[in-house]
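Structure in, sequence out. Go:
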């Protein structure tokens, strides 16, 4: 927060200096539609070959503080691009309507501006008009209507996105950039979806690359990349205000009633003398989170037919503490009484976003930018447990120097988590604070579980006066005497204490991790006559600080460094009908061998309307910081990250047996001992059943992908896009369990060491869960197709469908991450921004097939995500005199409660009304 205050003060001081420099612009004019003669709002006007420009206002007027000679480039989606010499007299410019896709420009596909039709790889774009007209509650939710994209909801304030399979609720295989800045908190190792980042009010465009983009963007862009660009304060000036009020939880079955949601945002931007500009953004969203209240009994040790609310060993999906269970002799399996998630979680969620940026144009071709972002929020995250990301702070700084053909960018990400916690651990730990022995005395937490089962056993067996035996309900009630009841003072005190306690004795999570990053790019194309060339590189350093609660970093300066460089060459051939591009990138992390990832593509354009593309792409993903550096002793096992430096001294990778062979040895030894074989002889008889583990240290995951596609205008009103891809993956990151004895696992002659075998039987061992890679190979293939129709009277219809197929090939399923992706998904959007005077609407339909979700929350056992369809809708009324838009909308209009990941909450309808004032005081 102190940084933001300093930024505001600096802005005020700079304003005082630059007001004196303000002068009347030298270039002014008005832009109109050539057919209707009506003024055009939001037309981009910039100086060719320079870095500055502006946009037309609500009356089509524009001003630029430049002096001729200069060439102006005038562009707007849906109109033909115009280049014209600047004039000091008022310029009256008219634009001819054309297919909106013909001149649409993207940057992310090749890291340079290019026509979207000639992109060498599949790319989707949501422009500013699509953002404004989206029927979804916000622009991020509206991304679900893009081809190939999957969205998973863990919380009202946290949705995760992915493309092309191997989906998860915390996706470390997908890169999210905002103004070129990686939006991941470094300790988490993945971007938190929509919890952190820009508000709709400041978003100009979003570009999506489905599939590997590592050749240009490095290891995180393994499955794809989302690039969000915010509004430049030179171009988008004035005061913008958005107020949105909504309700959710209508008819959710809980009886708690509908809940309000509020979303409020203010943006102000101002430019002076075409040299200095600033912008300030503030937004705050608050509401009641979706409830995770699936109480299905998932206990794997109870036959499915016997599961349910009356099962003594019940383990309900969203009840925590009942995972602690025991099979009692002559009684059967019994679990402890757990707590529902609603009693443990923080369902009052919010997202606060503060942003400020200063832009200074040093020359006509050189601009300096400083930007600061402060984010704080609360969300639920479904991982191995349900985690409350509570009051989580995420602070970013960006400093950039850019010209028309280069940029140098440095940024830092800092996270601060002091109130976050694990709800499953919290439920189990509260259950260990109140258990009484048979004399009525509260026992210590380490004895609580065993004592509870003793009480249950005694009551069930009829040895407790006043309690009838052979009755599970009465036995449970007796064992639960003294149980802390949700909502009671004692319960809340225990809950708060355990949240503030970190490590194995508490549920709290601490992270103060950060990263620093610097990168640059230079486009040499203007100096070369034969081909185009771009060269770039980056350096990144992670700083880990969890005070020993997650990493072995207490009292240490634990860091991790990586760097990368790339080059891209492109050439137009056959009279610019064929464009070939070759890209190559080298990346090196201090813990892994260097990786070279090439990409080659060709785009054949027999005409301006038809474009055929083919590409070969490679990608890789380095293990996350957690995969490398976790060192967590959870009692019976140590979870150990796979970086060699992290495992040093543990001897776990070098000197251990496979867990399966230890089990086989123990069983065979026990059988011999039962037959009367002496202990030493039983060890010698069976020690050769032990197998030395051969677990390599972790390395990067890899993918190779081939893609062909077509994108073109079948007529001026019909755009068609289709692509087919085939990808092969290998070296997926997995976990394996080994047993390390105190003695050497083998003797000098290579045989199994008898003393090490004896260690197993006498308790001289330590179990480890190690991170490593599987050599198994799998493949996916898929087809995506989209159709856009420009219909009469300004109607527009967009439709797309995606089919994806996963082939396990000969791989061991235990060695492959869960695919977690529907086979089919489709989207259909009908819109008209001017169906009547100043009245518009849009209607979006999404459908996808059912699939099994595998996740660590359910210990990698399948849970069905049923097929579902959703409808989003909005109607909007423009009030030009007030520069405002009133929108009435609904996300999930029919209020179906759907689940997108097993264990995550069911999501219902969200109904809202918003009032937007745009570019006031311009």
């Amino acid at each position: 927060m102190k940084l933001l205050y300093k930024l505001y003060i600096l802005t005020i001081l700079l304003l005082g200096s630059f007001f004196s420099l303000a002068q009347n612009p030298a270039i002014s004019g008005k832009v109109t539609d050539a057919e209707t003669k009506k003024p055009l709002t939001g037309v981009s006007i910039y100086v060719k070959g320079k870095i500055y420009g502006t946009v037309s206002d609500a009356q089509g007027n524009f001003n630029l503080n430049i002096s001729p000679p200069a060439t102006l480039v005038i562009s707007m989606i849906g109109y033909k691009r115009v280049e014209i010499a600047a004039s000091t007299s008022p310029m009256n410019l008219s634009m001819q309507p054309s297919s909106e896709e013909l001149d649409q420009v993207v940057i992310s596909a090749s890291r340079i501006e290019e026509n979207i039709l000639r992109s060498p790889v599949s790319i989707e774009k949501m422009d500013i008009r699509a953002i404004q007209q989206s029927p979804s509650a916000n622009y991020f939710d509206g991304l679900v209507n893009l081809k190939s994209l999957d969205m998973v909801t863990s919380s009202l304030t946290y949705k995760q996105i992915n493309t092309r399979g191997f989906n998860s609720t915390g996706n470390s295989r997908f890169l999210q950039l905002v103004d070129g800045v990686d939006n991941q908190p470094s300790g988490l190792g993945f971007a938190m979806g929509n919890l952190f980042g820009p508000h709709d009010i400041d978003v100009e465009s979003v570009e999506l690359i489905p599939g590997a983009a590592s050749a240009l963007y490095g290891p995180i862009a393994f499955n794809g990349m989302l690039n969000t660009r915010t509004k430049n304060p030179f171009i988008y000036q004035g005061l913008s205000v958005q107020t949105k009020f909504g309700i959710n939880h209508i008819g959710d079955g809980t009886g708690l009633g509908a809940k309000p949601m509020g979303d409020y945002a203010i943006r102000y931007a101002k430019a002076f003398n075409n040299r200095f500009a600033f912008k300030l953004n503030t937004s705050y969203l608050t509401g009641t989170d979706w409830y995770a209240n699936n109480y299905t009994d998932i206990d794997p040790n109870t036959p499915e037919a016997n599961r349910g609310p009356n099962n003594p060993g019940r383990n309900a999906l969203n009840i925590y503490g009942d995972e602690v269970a025991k099979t009692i002799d002559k009684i059967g399996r019994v679990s402890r009484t757990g707590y529902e998630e609603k009693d443990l979680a923080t369902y009052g969620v919010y997202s606060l976003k503060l942003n400020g940026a200063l832009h200074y144009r040093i020359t006509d071709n050189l601009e300096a930018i400083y930007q600061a972002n402060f984010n704080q929020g609360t969300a639920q995250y479904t991982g191995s447990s349900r985690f409350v990301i509570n009051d989580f702070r995420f602070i970013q700084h960006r400093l950039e120097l850019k010209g028309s053909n280069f940029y140098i960018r440095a940024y830092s990400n800092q996270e601060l988590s002091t109130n976050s916690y694990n709800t499953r651990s919290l439920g189990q730990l509260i259950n260990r604070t109140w258990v009484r022995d048979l004399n009525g005395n509260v026992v210590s937490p380490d004895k609580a579980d065993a004592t509870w089962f003793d009480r249950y056993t005694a009551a069930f067996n009829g040895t407790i006066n006043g309690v009838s035996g052979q009755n599970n309900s009465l036995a449970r009630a007796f064992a639960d005497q003294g149980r802390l009841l949700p909502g009671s003072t004692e319960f809340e005190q225990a809950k708060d204490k355990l949240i503030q306690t970190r490590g194995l004795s508490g549920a709290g999570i601490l992270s103060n991790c950060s990263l620093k990053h610097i990168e640059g790019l230079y486009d040499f194309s203007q100096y070369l006559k034969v081909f185009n060339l771009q060269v770039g590189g980056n350096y990144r350093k992670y700083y880990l600080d969890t005070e020993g609660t997650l990493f072995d970093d207490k009292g240490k300066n634990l860091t991790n460094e990586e760097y990368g460089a790339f080059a891209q060459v492109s050439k137009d051939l056959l009279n610019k009908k064929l464009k070939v591009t070759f890209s190559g990138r080298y990346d090196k992390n201090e813990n892994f061998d260097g990786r070279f990832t090439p990409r080659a593509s060709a785009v054949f354009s027999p005409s301006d309307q038809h474009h055929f593309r083919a590409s070969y792409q490679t990608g890789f993903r380095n293990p996350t910081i957690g995969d490398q550096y976790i060192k967590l002793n959870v009692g019976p096992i140590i979870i150990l990250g796979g970086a060699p430096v992290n495992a040093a001294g543990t001897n776990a990778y070098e000197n251990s047996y496979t867990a399966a062979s230890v089990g086989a040895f123990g069983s065979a030894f026990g059988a011999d001992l039962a037959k009367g074989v002496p202990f030493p002889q039983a060890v010698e008889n069976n020690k050769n059943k032990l197998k030395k583990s051969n677990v390599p240290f972790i390395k990067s995951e890899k993918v190779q992908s081939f893609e062909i596609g077509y994108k073109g205008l079948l007529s001026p009103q019909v755009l068609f896009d289709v692509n087919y891809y085939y990808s092969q993956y290998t070296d997926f990151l997995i976990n394996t369990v080994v047993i390390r004895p105190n003695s050497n696992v083998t003797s000098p002659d290579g045989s199994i060491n008898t003393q090490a075998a004896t260690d197993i039987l006498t308790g001289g061992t330590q179990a480890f869960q190690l991170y490593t890679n599987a050599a198994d190979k799998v493949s996916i293939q898929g087809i995506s197709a989209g159709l856009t129709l420009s219909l009469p009277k300004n109607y527009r219809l967009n439709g797309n469908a995606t089919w994806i197929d996963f082939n396990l090939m000969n791989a061991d399923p235990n060695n492959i991450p869960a695919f977690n992706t529907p086979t089919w998904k489709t989207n259909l959007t009908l819109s008209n921004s001017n169906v009547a005077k100043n009245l518009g609407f849009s209607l979006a339909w999404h459908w996808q097939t059912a699939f099994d979700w595998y996740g660590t929350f359910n210990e990698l056992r399948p849970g069905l995500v049923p097929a579902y369809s959703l409808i989003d809708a909005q109607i909007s009324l423009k009030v030009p005199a007030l520069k405002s838009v009133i929108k009435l909308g609904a996300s999930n209009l029919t209020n179906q409660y759907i689940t997108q990941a097993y264990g995550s909450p069911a999501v219902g309808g969200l109904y809202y009304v918003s009032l937007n004032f745009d570019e006031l005081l311009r």
